[in-house]
Amino acid sequence: MIDRNVTFPKTHSLNKLIAIIKEQEIEVPPEVEESVILNDYAVETRYPGEYEPVTAEEYNTAVKITSGVIQWVKEQLRNNV
Q: Residue 13, Cα to own-chain centre: how many angstroms?
């Protein structure tokens, strides 16, 4: 986004960040859009409270989604350098 001179807020909200990317007419694949479910984990691990433990299945899903996002970002960087 920096190379496009886009101002973006300091935020951990994947919803907001994805919306900003889309405003730049960058295609965001569905598997990257799916990453918004990771916001819940950020809140639960950052703030104290009584939360349900993360299951092995949820953990594996989160890792898979995160890996997909990282791969997509790397591709974007390679294509725009």
A: 8
Q: Domain ranges for the chain, please list them.
A: 2-79
pLDDT tens digit string along 48-75? 778 788 899 999 999 999 999 999 999 9
Cβ-contact 71, 31 below 8 angstroms: no
Question: How deeply is 69 buried, as exposed, middle or buried, from its count of CB atoms within 10 A (0-12, 13-18, 19+)?
Answer: buried
What pLDDT does 18 receive?
94
pTM of the model: 0.80
Instruction: Count each helix (H run) and each strand (E run) in the chain, helices first.
Output: 4, 0
Say yes or no to pLDDT of 81 above 70. Answer: no
How many CA within 13 A on the CB side of residue 31? 13
Q: What are the structure tokens assigned to 1, written together? A: 């986004």
* 23/37 Cα distance (integer angstroms): 21
